[in-house]
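Repro:
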Amino acid sequence: MSDRGDGASAVGASGFGEGEGELLTLTYPRPLPMRLDRWLVAQRPEQSRSRIQKFIDAGYVRVNGVTGRAKTPLRHGDTVELWMPPPEPLPYLVAQAMPLDVLFEDEHLIVLNKPAGLTVHPAPGNKDGTLVNGLLHHCPDLPGIGGELRPGIVHRLDKDTTGCIVVAKSQEALVKLQVQIQKRIASREYLAVVHGQPAADSGTVVGAIGRHPSDRKKYAVVSDGSGRHACTHWRVIERLGDYAMLRFKLDTGRTHQIRVHCAHMNHPIVGDPTYSRARRLPVELPGQALHAVQLGLDHPISGERIVCEAPLPPPFDKLLAALRRRTQTGAALPPSARSMAEQNLQAFIVAVQQDPDLQQQLSTTAAADADEVAGIARSAGFEVRPGDLVAFGGGALVDYEDEDYFMKPRWWTLAS
């Protein structure tokens, strides 16, 4: 029995290619045979392989007027007809009016500045009030994705993460934008405020991300065999006492990637309810202080480079202003807001109290310069900086004189 069309069309002889939709007629040009599904995928790169397979299974592809199968061999000169019906509405997706902060838009894609608290896509228990619902209302002439009347989510942002997100309006735009994400043609940069200050000014975290071994609601850096490769580049933009503002650039796009990698660095993102300990903050935040500040991509149709930037949301700005004021005034942080910097300092204090050699080093003179003390701490294996010595304890650890910091004798006994 031949595979070259031995069945009737699933849509009927009179219905094929009629009504709304798109009918394409192609001619197979090659001298050697090739499977129908593989050739169609190569001819229609804007369609996914699974979508082409669905067209074939539904009887929407004919070879020389006869319904084709995935493995139907094409021969030179064969006529292939592909019927793509209009997208079908999804019953659970309803259009809902909501304010959208549009950074760029045309008939192929839209780039938005997403606010905190907005879920991107409907899910069980959260079937409306999402960004997709708002886009359905905003784009009444949406051509649809994958045969369904919906926008194409190229990449996601967590519910409480703010900033740039690009959404495709057509299947072709979706596929091409996803390829840009995979091949790092598209660039995504984020800003975040983290607890503590990294010792270096920049670095890269390479760590596979998978489900947390004991908490299935969280993700963690895991062994390569049980997670997916993830790479995050970071650099310090501003040091703010017990905090730092970092800028991130992603090579991959794993779930919670920046949040997990920051926690792995022992510098969790401020306000992160999942990966950071609960601490009292100088301002109230709606979620983690993580913002997708810049998105660069090549337009999927014209090829023109597009770079969009999203301004910081007001809570993020207020947090930075409060931390800058605190840094400038040298105000001590309340115990509930202390970070890894103080944990390192307190550990060093305990070590000094228990180690006569360290005590001897620190008491050779009546007063030691803070830089010298910090150097002794680092030599002992504690990440302590001169600023840490004056930021905590309400000033009990140091005296300030003539723009130089001096340590009081036996300062470790005053730590409490």
